[in-house]
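Table S2 (text version). Query chain:
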Amino acid sequence: MSSKGGGTALTRRNYRLASDMDKPRSTGIVNEKLLSDYLHHVFPSTKQGPTLASLRKPLGFQDLPAHLEKLLSEDTPTEDGQAVDGRLGPQPVVLDHTSGFEGLLFVDDDLLGVIGHSNFSSIRATTCVYKGKWAYEVLISSQGLMQIGWCTLSCRFNQEEGVGDTPDSYAYDGNRVRKWNVTTTNYGKSWAAGDIVSCLIDLDEGTITFCLNGQSLGTAFTNIKMGPGIAYFPAISLSFKESVAFNFGSRPLRYPVDGYLPLQNPPAADLMKAHKLLGYIKNVLSTAIDTQEEGLVEKDCAVWRLHGEPTVLVTLAHIFNHFAPLMCKVYLVEDVLMNFLLGILEGGGSVDEHPLIQQLLDLFWLLMEDHEVNECLKQLMMSLLRAYRFSPIIPDLGFQIHYLRLTTAILRHEKSRKYLLSNLTFDVLRSVVFFYIKTPLRVKEAGLEELIPTTWWPTHFDKEGKDELEPKDESADERLRRRAYERGCQRLKKRIEVVEELQVQILRLLLNNKDKSTGEASRYIFLNKFRKFLQENASNRGHPTALCPPEYMVCFLHRLITAVRGCWDEGHRKSLSSVSSDGAYVPPQLFYNGKVDYFDLQRLGGLLSHLKKTLKDDLASKANIIIDPAEIQATSMDDLDEDDESGAAQRLPGAVAMGGALARPSWLSSPTLGRANRFLSTAAVSLMTPRRPLSQPEKVKVRTLAVEQRTEEDIEGSYGNDGLLLGRPLEEPDQPNADKSLLEIVDGIVMMYNLSVHQQLGKMVVVSDDVHEYAVALKDTEEKIARCPARRADILEELQKSQKVFAEKLNHLSRRLAWINATIYSKEKMLDIYWLLCVCIRTIEHADNTGSLFAFTPEFYLNVAMNAYSALKNYFSPANGMDELPGYEETLTQLAAILAKHFADPRIVGTDIKDSLMQALASYVCYPQSLRAVERIPEEQRVAMMKNLLAPYEQRPWAQTNWILVRLWRGCGFGYRYTRLPHLLKTKPEDANLPSLQKPCPSLLLQRHMAELLSMDKDMAASFLNSVLNQLNWAFSEFIGMIQEIQQAAERPERNFVDTRQLKVCATCFDLSVSLLRVLEMTVTLVPEIFLDWSRPSAELLLRRLAQLLNQVLNRVTAEKNLFDRVVNLRLPGLESVDHYPILVAVTGILVRILVDGDRQGDHPARDTTQFAHH
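Corresponding structure-token output:
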């Protein structure tokens, strides 16, 4: 729509000037002289010298198009696409996805991002160079095995050999810190995700150089092959799941190097035009027309408002006529527009203090076509994401703060925010990048040395090798160092909190549910995107390329908890009768009313389709929910009526070549963040376009659409409609919630924790473990130096070298640990995880009250409750004590009640979740604090738990049950007060925090319950003891069989190795035999009458069986020069726990009790047992 005529109809869109009617007439089109002065001021000519205003040719709107064209054509450089000497190939430069690759690869739709999908895949660009100096950049998205550099057309790659492994190819590998050209040598520094590698080739001098984040790593190769027929292509080889994105010049290079040209020409002509037009826009913003005085007034751009003066708008419309099409090009958006907007925010202050960005966005929506604004906003957001993700870390996190501030300013604009949220460009997938704070691998470059000048690490350890929290003999110097280090950590934490605060602000904008004037509120758009994000991560667990990286997920989880709790409490303050976020939980009806999609995730009672069939009557009677018979049938018939069309409809966008199974949100790979829609493969053609997606989610067809199409009313409800809370069971209190939509987000947060956050929290603990290990090694070395004799200078020198290495490593690690503690394990993050634990506990309690409907609860709620407790205990302590958490004792008791009740709950069918509950309970009773919590649960529940533990062992994983009973006894048995076996005391445990290495903490209360149950219920006592004796017979026989095999293997003359797995099984059978003997000792001690009261029908039989088994054990273990002795003396690794002491002490304990109690019971049984004992 170019403008041809004059007058006010020059705009590119028909818009109504809203404020025309309100303004006095004098603000209409101004008189000709003033207009001419104004236009000459806005569009100054560069060619003329400073002439007098009176000599200038008058300028009106009818002459403006020609004047503007003339100004824009002045000094314009020649056409961009011309061939430059020294380069061959098409422009724009992209990756050669037709013939220049080897192996399996995913390539993004912009042909610049790539992910490896096989052992070692290679790909090159479409353009090569043969003379001159050239550069391109690679944005590293994952820090694994990759070789990046240059190759010639003659290089042949395969799944083993890539760039740098052939004579005419040269590569840098920052994973192994080496350079490659057939042979390899050390070179450069290690790279990390978020780094930028610049690859420079000088074909005049014959050298190749690499830079990392703008710092040269030195010349890597000299005298490279040159001459006729030799030209070099940019190329990369990368292993499975590794990902990068290339910038050949389609965007401004982040670190341009003087003298080197990008492979792709910058759009010089467009660039000059865009800068000129931006200058004209700035002139408009800084000039006001004073109609009274008939003159122009200079004013501050920052206070400019879009008031609707026709003169200004028509002038801007002429400028946007040229400016708008340019703003659809990524290079210009990044180089011109983004830098201009960042400049506006440069002055500091809060984002609210810079309203100009809002005004400019209004202007964009007013004067640009919709498709232009959309493309411009998309490119602007992508550029900001890239800039944020690939900015180097500096001490004040200045770059990150800068880009987040602009993102916040843009998202404050309602129309822009909704466009970005609704369209894939600001899919939650991509926005997750904004909530991540990367951990610097190179402490020096991140400036942590200035921020934390003094380092410190623990130097006092207790007997078990654990750090002492408050060492008594800490020297004054150590105390000073520790305090200086803590102050440095505080400084760092404050800087990180600034970034986190901005990230929460962005989320608060996305969770806005008041902006309904322009259609659906942002929160409901976000909600549907968030659910889609969870679905992609939950259903693609087998395909790592499709998952959001766990380190992003951790940061996103914490920011989302902060934002959601903020919104929740805001609502609570307005309606005080509603639940506050401290009491938040997810009501049980969400799990069965179909309003929230749980994809095909396992429920406690099995699959949803099965539950709908079996529990449909309960749903009708308890929750007034009628399941449509057609829906039940559809679920079971789903696979039969699946036609081609629905398979295609369900495929995620981007899965064009590979089908649903390999569909991948490419934001993960490529910093260009485009969708991957090409799957390149030099083999496996049969993989292409399957008839239907490979992993069909169950019955997503109907329900996913419902999630996408849900409106605010479906979620929040209205009069007579409960929205998300439809189907409230009678047991559930009718308590109002601030916003129902927040319940679904809380549910999503719990799911996120289960998907990958817990795993990542466990992974990052490694750094503090490393600090501990190096600190122990350093202390050990220093002690050796102190003891080293003066005459052994050679040993002293070696020890001092080791000391220096350990100290350097500790300096580096302690600063890195400060960063990780601030971003992942801080007190605030601990409170977030604790809040999540409490949400899960309350949710499970409410669901449990609904009786049979408890089966609908997703399994992940129980998993998160157990894992969050484990994380608080093992990952956040000891830096942050758990005792300081609000209401911690009560929470421990609630969790104990859940474990005690549900480990044998018939409503739970999944074997994995049952095992997890059993293991959690076993771990719970190992620690005094959590064992006391089990003792605090109501007596009725404790007795029920003990009854379940004593149920015959044949019906369940008995080893875990037995372990729980043993832990309740340990510390009371004969010679059973040890933490570690006496013969192992000289060795250091690998992990002193293991449940099995805790000091004994027996529970007399639970022992009493056991005694009462066994003495009152004779049948149960008999079946329980028979199963224990059966298992003991099996375990000990298996153990003897195994040691016979080990002995035979050891006696063979040829060199042989015993399978470590076999040793492990052997040790396990021995440990089981000992623990079963201890349970028998416990029973004999607590309820001797089971064996010794002859009025009981089973007493004699049980005593005989016991005597036989003990006899068998003693014969095998105590006979002279027996098999047991020989295997123990072999001292095989893995069989450390196999020794005479544990098993003989257990047997002695049983015999002593029978002798003591037998004398009391009277004469008949005592005679038998006494004879056996003497034997």
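Notes on Table S2: The CA atoms of residues 922 and 964 lie 5 Å apart. Confidence is low (pLDDT under 50) at residues 1-27, 637-677, 683-705.
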